[in-house]
Amino acid sequence: MGKWYILHVRTGQEEKIKKLLENRVNEDKKIISNIFIPKEEILEVEKGEKKAKSRRFWPGYMLIEIEDEWDNEVIWHKIKTTPGVFGFLGAGETPVPLKEDEVEKILNEIEERRAKPLPKVEFKVKDRIEVIDGPFVGYHGVVEEVYPDRERLKVSVSIFGRSTSLELNFWQVEKIS
Hints:
SH3 type barrels; five-stranded antiparallel beta sheet
C-alpha cells in the first residue's frame, strides 16, 4: 500500500486528467496505484420520473495513491506538470501525504454517500414549494419541517381557504424561487 495525496485539478475535467495521469505517469510501471474521484448519487425528478445521477462532491479534487517505492520528487514533478493539474493539496513545496485515519475517514464518507442517494434539491423551513405528484398536484405551500433521513417534508398548503399540513416525499414537490 502506498501513500495517499489530494490533488487539486481543473474543475469539470477530473475524468480527463485521471486518464492523462494514468497514461503519463504509469507508462511502464504501476506508480500511481489508485486515482479516485469522489462522487455521489443524487435523486432527480425528470418528467415525473425519479432518476439517480452521479455528481462529484469535491469538484476540482481527486485522491491519488502513489506506491511507496516511487514516492519521490521526480514523480511529483511529473504529476504537477500534467495538463490540468494545479498541484498537491498541502503546505510548502513538498506534498504532504494523508494520514491513515484521514484516508479511512474519506473513503468511508464516500461509501456512505454512494450507498444512500441524496435529493438534488435541498429543502429548508419556509421554502415555497409546488406539489407535482400525488392527489394534491398543483397546490402551492410552505415547508414547515424537513426530515432528511426519511426524505420527507411537512408542508402547509391552503385547501378550501384553510391551512392544511401534509407530509410529502422530496420528489413529490418542486421548489419555487
